[in-house]
Amino acid sequence: MRAKFPQQDGVVFVGKAQEKCTVYRTEKRHNPKTHRAYAWIVKSTALVNHYYFYCVDENFGPFFLKFCSYFPYNAKLCLNGHEYAKQQLERNQIAYQALDNGIRSCADPQRLQQICDALSAAKIDALLRKWLRRLPHPYPAADRAAGYRYQLSIWQIELSLTQVLDRPVSGRIFFEQVIRENLDLGRPKQVQLIFDRSVTKATPGPFRTRVLTDGVIPSLHIDYKGTRIKQYHKEGQALRTETTINNTRDFYIGKSIANLPALRKIGFQANRRVLQVQTITHDSILAEETLQQLQRPRMVEGQRVSALHIADPNVQALWNAVLMFDLLPAGFSNRQLRAHLAQLLGQPEETLTQGRMSYHLRRLRLHGLIQRIPKTHRYRLTDFGLRTAVFCTRSYARIFRHGLGMALPAASPVPNPLLHSFNKLTNTIHAWVDHAKLAA
């Protein structure tokens, strides 16, 4: 419907819905002395009609206004600061690329930041007044002249920090590692660092870190009183950190729109402090890239080099063979490597021709695992090659091959802790399926 609306300023859609809300009713009471009846106003709840006006503004883009049809005729204004920024960029003819309700890239980032900083309480109030003059609402002109007017207060405010990644594919790997190593962010000591406030026994909790998954996208959630911090990998392209303040009094600040600058400061500082408090023990992006470079064919120095698959018996034998020459100052030759590799593969040395060995040496060299000693036909392990060969051979022998054998009942008839854990998991899943009466 929005796509078919040609105007830059107008009402796109009007809707009506019954919703439960807080209202004030009158009830009959009696004076205990005179026994005369009188009306008394009490706070209650009711299911009443609400009217929604979905509009487009030339400065703010899409927003909506909702009016309650029952006294005291509460209203709600909902707008998106990112849409405001997009409208201003278009009005200033600045090229940009959107990222859902954010900005992925912009031709003038400094100007974009100025636009975002300029979104003030006065501009939001002016938006409300403009559309109250245009839209029908519960307060007619006579009531407004008598002083009955809507005043803006902050019911909920969301402040976000979007960091666009130059390598989006690696971003998810990085974020999963961040989650894995920062599951204690919701603890009181960490929360007081994020919000720069003392946390005592009287501070409402609970203090927790939750990891929720929507499909295959994980998100990290941190709570502080009525405030929520959410961090997630946005559309596979950016790391998004959002602070949502649901009760301004959590920070001893009033709800008036005039307090917008103070709340923005709290929210943006919380987003930054989350990143400062978070730690990661190693660069998971570089580690993933290194692993993929070994596991996939690629072009190096204009030459195609084949992959070194960690589970390939020939590759495992090759790594074990070159490790035997690590301490030799003069390195090793084609013939020396061939003798050890043949034994590890269980083949006669004659089956490994010089050409085949040259092929193995070439791909080890192009992958950066070995280097040729200048002016000789001998090679030595690089530091990268030593660490990679040791890690891959030991992890394969002690974890992958040994662990998989222990986890498979056919391969491991003797009971062991790993097999017991897998059997317990399988039995628990089957019991849950039977209890839920799910079809196979």
Mind explaining what this structure looks like?
The protein has 440 residues and is of the alpha+beta class. The protein has three domains: 1-79 and 120-151, no CATH class; 153-283; 296-407, Winged helix-like DNA-binding domain superfamily/Winged helix DNA-binding domain (Arc Repressor Mutant, subunit A). 39% of the residues lie in helices and 26% in strands. The chain contains 13 helices and 16 strands. It has helices spanning 81-91, 109-117, 121-134, 141-145, 168-181, 188-195, 260-277, 284-295, 313-323, 334-345, 354-366, 383-407, 417-436, and strands at residues 10-30, 37-57, 61-68, 75-79, 96-98, 103-106, 157-164, 209-214, 217-224, 227-234, 238-245, 298-300, 303-305, 332-333, 370-372, 378-381. The strands form five sheets. A five-stranded antiparallel beta sheet has the order 7-11-10-9-8, covered by helices on one side. Strand 2 (37-57) and strand 3 (61-68) form a beta hairpin. Helix 6 packs across helix 7 and helix 9 (313-323) packs across helix 10. The radius of gyration is 33 Å and the shape is elongated.
